[in-house]
Fold this sequence. Notes:
Layout: H1 4-16, E1 19-26, H2 45-57, E2 64-65, E3 74-83, H3 90-98, E4 105-113, E5 125-134, E6 147-149, H4 155-162, E7 167-170, E8 185-196, E9 199-206, H5 213-225, H6 233-240, E10 255-261
Parallel strand pairs: 3-10, 5-6
Antiparallel strand pairs: 1-3, 1-4, 2-3, 5-9, 5-10, 7-8, 8-9
Helix pairs in contact: 2-3, 4-5
Amino acid sequence: MPDTKQSKDQEATQVASCRLALCIEYAGENYKGWQKQKFDALPTVQERVEKALSKVANHPVTVICAGRTDTGVNGTYQIIHFDSVAERDLRAWVLGTNSNLPQDISVQWAKAVDDSFHARFSAISRRYRYIIYPNPVMPGILPKGVTWTHKSLDLEAMQRAAQYLIGEHDFSSYRAVACQAKSAVRTISDISLYRSGELLVIDVQANAFLHHMIRNIAGVLMKIGAAEAAPEWAQQVLLARDRRKGGVTAPPHGLYFVDVKYPQKYQLPASKLGPYFITGRD
């Protein structure tokens, strides 16, 4: 006869080791970035997500994310993982959590993963889209969902400038002064610029990003697009390795975290490459 106590212990161990991956979509306008703050009363996306998950799990939940986003930055494919002893089906994790979240944060899907999965350290690459609305008059719709400029932007000049940034480089000139990364070396595998209706999209994929890196790239490219600098200036800024040479940091509103790549063995659902109002390149 099987040892009942041993069987129950094994079952409890299996439940305790349950790890889940979730995809989170959010508008960053009302939050002080993704990361929970110890001594700040302002809300963060992580704080809201953990509170909602804890209600569904009926125990405290702490999540790990693929990439921390700044104040005002949006996400359409933020991947998180957490461990839970709660026995819930995947539909309950999605619908139950969403019922406890504000309308500007949404769980898109949930998937069981093994203990080797780590939302941050298992990631192979990350992808952002920066969305610009160049128009003489400011928008009344999505004012915090795009970055508006009254200046006309030369897309071809911006495309030429962006090519200088592809590859492995020291991006010291393109990171925030307060960036705490030990190394400024990052590898941009692809950067493309294109129009989607009246919008202009800067689409960047890299192994990882530095604090304000995309916003500083956008600031440089927008200055070039406005004919205030030559395309070669993007390379000159890069080689200077000095943030003071890099110009203005672009606003956070138009920035979207849209994809993370993981090893195929985890079989996570593919990103839809949002935001949903953008059409064009995959």
